[in-house]
C-alpha cells in the first residue's frame, strides 16, 4: 500500500504522525537539554529501582540461608522431644530398688513401647524381616549363609534389626540367609 503512495503523501503522513506524537507526549517540542534532563531523571529512577530490587533479593537470599542453617541445627529437636520420656522411664527404672524381675521386665516392656512410639513419631521405621521372607540387599545385610530347609536366598534369622528414615536405609537389618540346596 505504501508503494503506491507518492513521496509527498508519505512526507505528509510522517509530519502528521510527528504532530500526533508531539501532541500526546510533547517531546518533539522539547529542547535537547530538556529531553536529556528527562532521560537522566528516568535513568536515575531506574537505577534506584534496580538497586532496591537487588538489595531485596540479597535480603531474601540471606534470610533463606539463615532459615536453612536453623533447620539443620534444630532438625533433631522434634525427635528428641519424643525420646525424653523414654530417658525418664529408664532413669526411673534404675532408681527403683525393687528386686522383682517380673516388675522390672514389665517396666522395660513399657519403656520399649515408648521408644517404638517415639520412633514412629520421628518416622523411623524398623526393618525386621520375618523368617522365610525374601532377602533384600537394599534393606538387609547378610552376615552368613546357612543350610536350611527354606528356599534359597530367604531370611533364616534376624541378628539385629535395621531402620529406615523416609525410605532411606539408616542401618540395614543383619540377617542370616539360607543357602541353595
Automatic annotation (TrEMBL):
<keyword id="KW-0346">Stress response</keyword>
<comment type="function">
    <text>Participates actively in the response to hyperosmotic and heat shock by preventing the aggregation of stress-denatured proteins, in association with DnaK and GrpE. It is the nucleotide exchange factor for DnaK and may function as a thermosensor. Unfolded proteins bind initially to DnaJ; upon interaction with the DnaJ-bound protein, DnaK hydrolyzes its bound ATP, resulting in the formation of a stable complex. GrpE releases ADP from DnaK; ATP binding to DnaK triggers the release of the substrate protein, thus completing the reaction cycle.</text>
</comment>
<dbReference type="GO" id="GO:0042803">
    <property type="term" value="F:protein homodimerization activity"/>
</dbReference>
<dbReference type="GO" id="GO:0005829">
    <property type="term" value="C:cytosol"/>
</dbReference>
<dbReference type="GO" id="GO:0051082">
    <property type="term" value="F:unfolded protein binding"/>
</dbReference>
<keyword id="KW-0963">Cytoplasm</keyword>
<comment type="subunit">
    <text>Homodimer.</text>
</comment>
<dbReference type="GO" id="GO:0051087">
    <property type="term" value="F:protein-folding chaperone binding"/>
</dbReference>
<protein>
    <recommendedName>
        <fullName>Protein GrpE</fullName>
    </recommendedName>
</protein>
<feature type="compositionally biased region" description="Basic and acidic residues">
    <location>
        <begin position="1"/>
        <end position="12"/>
    </location>
</feature>
<dbReference type="Pfam" id="PF01025">
    <property type="entry name" value="GrpE"/>
</dbReference>
<dbReference type="GO" id="GO:0000774">
    <property type="term" value="F:adenyl-nucleotide exchange factor activity"/>
</dbReference>
<dbReference type="InterPro" id="IPR000740">
    <property type="entry name" value="GrpE"/>
</dbReference>
<keyword id="KW-0175">Coiled coil</keyword>
<keyword id="KW-0143">Chaperone</keyword>
<feature type="region of interest" description="Disordered">
    <location>
        <begin position="1"/>
        <end position="24"/>
    </location>
</feature>
<feature type="coiled-coil region">
    <location>
        <begin position="29"/>
        <end position="56"/>
    </location>
</feature>
<comment type="similarity">
    <text>Belongs to the GrpE family.</text>
</comment>
<dbReference type="InterPro" id="IPR009012">
    <property type="entry name" value="GrpE_head"/>
</dbReference>
<dbReference type="GO" id="GO:0006457">
    <property type="term" value="P:protein folding"/>
</dbReference>
<dbReference type="InterPro" id="IPR013805">
    <property type="entry name" value="GrpE_CC"/>
</dbReference>
